TrEMBL record:
It holds the Pfam family FAD_binding_3. This is Putative oxidoreductase. It comes from Gordonia hirsuta DSM 44140 = NBRC 16056. It comes from the Bacteria. Residues 15-319 form the FAD-binding domain. InterPro entries: FAD-bd (IPR002938), FAD/NAD-bd_sf (IPR036188), Geranylgeranyl_Rdtase_fam (IPR011777), Geranylgeranyl_reductase (IPR050407). GO terms for molecular function: FAD binding; oxidoreductase activity, acting on the CH-CH group of donors, NAD or NADP as acceptor.
Length: 420
């Protein structure tokens, strides 16, 4: 279906499953649901293709989730990224992705293209797309079950009667808020900006990541920079910082990003300045409560499923899309089952990662650990594994066991565990 025809698509009266939001989370959920035979409506406020502020990086975890979805052939036509080139304090370490069940490659695709491709894939699986239409309200009966969702397209308002609702409406989650979702900023969250630049090295097989980020005056900043090669003559150049309610990020992203782009110009053979600069906040590590009710679930960014140590969330968006649809088969009331499942899958790793991320917001921590750390290849291997959350329950080596233990110890002392 072309974007012109999807624009004209009629708004249906009812849906077995209504998926609100056609980012990676919503499109993955819609693809899984429609493939299982449910009458699935995928609704988005935007017309596609649309932009999304992002670094465009796909970790091996995201690539693995795309394979599970059935997009192996698609991936064959996209960049193959072998790992990270970590820079800082005068040193560089090229660290391949660790051997894991997720496979040896990452990728990078501009979100304008990636999200449109993913949503088309969901339509190919049988989902019905309604774009340019915003979900603005949910009607609930006395048991809390959503019976209908009110949507608006231009001046037209109408209701869609629903069986199940999967809310994938991103960071701000306006529908989620109406349903009671609350974001808690006392644990680490991210602020990040991205841009695009032309580069002669757009075909590189390594993602660049600078752990030592400085402003134009040479001051060390509590953040990091990245350059992700998109294989199409351009790279995504961005900067991110971690913050908490006690230590909000004070850096002005735009000048820092412009300075960073200048700093990497020779290294990445940039032939243009940074363009299309945008920024956004990133709730992380499951720092939200109210993620589900009787017949609805929040997934992806709406459920703060973003890695607190590197800000990536496309993998969790794709994974939670699948997990939510799988749960529909077993659970009649998702109020307790969905947060319990999220806890089981991500709770330990997110709890430990957000504690570590909180430490990184302290100005002395990054140089203290970074300066000696970047010189050790073995340590940087561990950093990439842990920061990328490329560990699973099946990994039994020392690092994996230590990280899991850290997760369960930290979880025990959390005043507010993830997703609660
Ligand atoms: C600067 C920056 C860099 C990042 N870099 C990376 C990276 O390199 N790799 C990575 O994995 N992650 C990265 N992330 C995180 C990543 O962008 C998100 O985790 C990911 O987009 C989450 O997908 P989603 O489907 O949950 O939400 P989104 O992609 O935000 O999709 C939500 C969709 O919902 C729609 N919507 C919203 N409200 C409504 C409504 N009421 N009705 C209908 N539709 C609605 C929106 O139009 C949108 O299409 C980055 C984030 C930022 C801010």
């Amino acid at each position: 279906m072309t974007s012109a025809t999807s624009r004209r698509a009629a708004i249906p009266d009812s849906a077995d499953i209504l998926v609100v939001g056609a980012g990676p989370a919503g499109s993955a959920a819609a693809a899984h649901a429609a493939a299982g035979g449910a009458a699935t409506v995928l609704l988005d406020a935007a017309e596609f293709p649309r932009d999304k502020t992002c670094g465009d990086g796909l970790t091996p975890r995201a690539v693995s989730a795309l394979r599970t979805l059935g997009m192996t052939e698609y991936l064959d036509t996209r960049p193959r990224i072998r790992g990270l080139a970590l820079h800082g304090w005068g040193a560089v370490q090229q660290v391949p992705w660790p051997a894991s069940q997720f496979g040896p490659f990452g990728s990078a695709v501009a979100r304008t293209e990636f999200d449109d491709d993913l949503r088309r894939f969901a339509l190919g699986r049988g989902a019905h797309m309604v774009s340019g239409t915003k979900a603005i309200d949910a009607e609930r009966d006395s048991s809390g079950t959503i019976t209908a969702v009110t949507v608006q397209r231009g001046a037209q308002r109408t209701r869609i009667r629903v069986g199940q609702v999967i809310v994938a409406d991103g960071v701000k989650s306006s529908l989620g808020k109406q349903l009671g979702r609350q974001w808690h900023r006392d644990t680490a969250y991210g602020v990040a900006g991205r841009s695009y630049a032309d580069s002669q090295l757009s075909d590189a097989e390594w993602m660049g990541s600078h752990l030592e980020l400085r402003d134009a005056q040479g001051e060390l900043l509590p953040g990091y920079g990245w350059v992700f090669p998109l294989g199409d003559g351009t790279v995504n150049v961005g900067v991110g910082a971690l913050a908490t309610a006690q230590r909000p990020a004070s850096m002005a992203l735009r000048p820092v990003l412009e300075h960073y782009a200048q700093m990497v110009t020779d290294q990445w053979q940039l032939t243009s300045g940074p363009t299309r600069i945008t920024s956004a906040l990133l709730p992380m590590g499951g720092a939200v409560s109210g993620v589900s009710g009787r017949n609805w679930m929040l997934i992806g960014d709406a459920a703060a499923c973003v890695n607190p140590l590197n800000g990536e969330g496309i993998d969790y968006a794709l994974e939670t899309g699948r997990m939510a649809v799988d749960l529909l088969a077993d659970s009649r009331d998702h109020t307790l089952t969905w947060p319990a499942l999220l806890q089981r899958e991500y709770g330990g790793a997110f709890a430990a990662a957000r504690r570590a991320a909180g430490l990184l917001t302290m100005p002395q921590t990054v140089p203290l650990l970074g300066r000696p750390g970047i010189r050790s290849a073995a340590l940087m291997d561990v950093v990439v594994r842990v920061m990328g959350n490329l560990l699973t329950g099946e990994d039994t080596d020392l690092i994996a066991r230590a990280w899991r233990s850290a997760g369960s110890v930290v979880s025990r002392f959390e005043t507010r565990p993830p997703f609660s």
